Amino acid sequence: MDKNILKPFDKPIYITSPTIPDWEDFEDQYKEIKHSGKVTNFGEKHNLLEKHLRKYLGVKNLLLFNNGTTALMSAIKALNLEGEIITTPYTFAATINSILWNNLTPVFCDIDDNYNIDTSKIEELITDKTCAILAVHTFGIPCDYNTIKKYADRYKLSVIYDCAHSFGVKVDGKSIGTLGDISMFSFHATKIFNTLEGGCLCCKDSYLAEKINKYRNFGLDNNNIVCPGINGKLNEFQAAIGLLNLPHVEKEINLRKHLAEIYCKELSDVKGLEINKIPKNISYNYQYFIINLFETGLRDYLHDKLKDYNIFTKKYMYPCATEYKYIKTTQFTPKANIAAKSTLALPIYGKMSNYDTKKICTIIKHIIEFYYNNRF
């Protein structure tokens, strides 16, 4: 064994490393924006990025936002929803907060083996107050969209998809952004495609897209305020970052895929560790590499000990939304609660080397072996 393999990394290895264009590439964009005199309010860069993203994501209508949370809040608002929304508790807080900010009630449905909303449990949660289903394609793995559509059609419910993890993903040959009434993508710096901060909404209905456009721009329509809008616009500098990053997305995905294959090979037989499997009917983006550590305490132990080696992982999705102090619920979602205490995202990004990845695997195996040999 390489004598340095168990030594801490000299520099921190974080869960991801944002793709940021070189200054030499960005400088021309900066000069163009400065020369135009327009840095926001649907400038040339903004409109061009919307055009390119519509093509890349294979969607009819796409509207850029300053972040994914603002976009999701606007999606719910634009659908004129009232009452209860069935959703998953195994998600980032922004999903749930977007429901609450619209004065709606989240009704939590437990998750399936892919960490997505369990569609076999949705129908029993539908009441006369249910207005929508808000499902998350967790870790970029698509939900059972056919069953969700069946219930939505049967009970006349709106369907919103949180695609924050799913940029570029396809399922059964379909772009993931074409499912449901509205789909939200996040372009946060941690995502496979980023505008530093940002996001977008995709929808099939052109009338709905026009309505969303008003909500993201103060409620303006031809200089008249026609609805209670917000300022959700993406500025020109963020759009320029997106235009420079978009051509490199496929390369980043392929680099991550290679690293994921190393992880799978090195960690497949490790005691107490299970690798989150990718279904065969999807084209995946390798946004995350998720492992599951179901032994009580092992996830937290590994997460903490890896810091000693300058390796920083993330507990996804912790805590489970049913445990948020500001949410009052008696709903029981055992699989989601267990998952929130057992899943761990490992570092994965294109700038990582093969050696880095193998070293992380060796350190993980060393820590887990020590855990089992010394836990009593």
Characterization of this structure:
It is a single chain. With 376 residues, the protein is an alpha/beta fold. The chain folds into two domains: 23-247, Aspartate Aminotransferase, domain 2 (3-Layer(aba) Sandwich), CATH 3.40.640; 248-374, Aspartate Aminotransferase, domain 1 (Alpha-Beta Complex), CATH 3.90.1150. Helix content is 36%, strand content 15%. The chain contains eleven helices and 15 strands. It has helices at residues 23-36, 44-57, 68-78, 93-101, 145-155, 206-215, 236-245, 249-267, 298-307, 334-340, 354-374, and strands at 61-65, 84-87, 105-108, 130-136, 158-162, 170-171, 174-175, 182-186, 199-203, 220-221, 224-225, 274-275, 282-283, 289-292, 343-346. The strands form four sheets. Strands 1-9-8-5-4-2-3 form a seven-stranded mixed beta sheet, sandwiched between helices. Helix 2 packs parallel to helix 7 (236-245) and helix 3 (68-78) packs parallel to helix 4 (93-101). The radius of gyration is 21 Å and the shape is globular. The chain starts with 22 loop residues before the first helix and ends with a helix.
As residue ranges, the low-confidence spans are none
Helix content: 25-40%
Order of SSEs, N→C?
HHEHEHEEHEEEEEHEEHHEEEHHEH
The coarse silhouette is: globular
Q: What CATH architecture label of the largest domain applies?
A: 3-Layer(aba) Sandwich
CATH superfamily of the largest domain: Type I PLP-dependent aspartate aminotransferase-like (Major domain)
The major pleated sheet works out as:
7 strands, mixed
CATH class of the largest domain: Alpha Beta
Question: For the residues shown, what is the average pLDDT?
Answer: 96
Any idea of the CATH topology of the largest domain?
Aspartate Aminotransferase, domain 2
C-alpha end-to-end distance: 28 Å
Strand order of the largest sheet: 1-9-8-5-4-2-3
Strand content: 5-15%
Radius of gyration: 21 Å
Number of domains: 2
Number of strands: 15
Structural class determined from secondary elements:
alpha/beta
The number of helical elements comes to 11
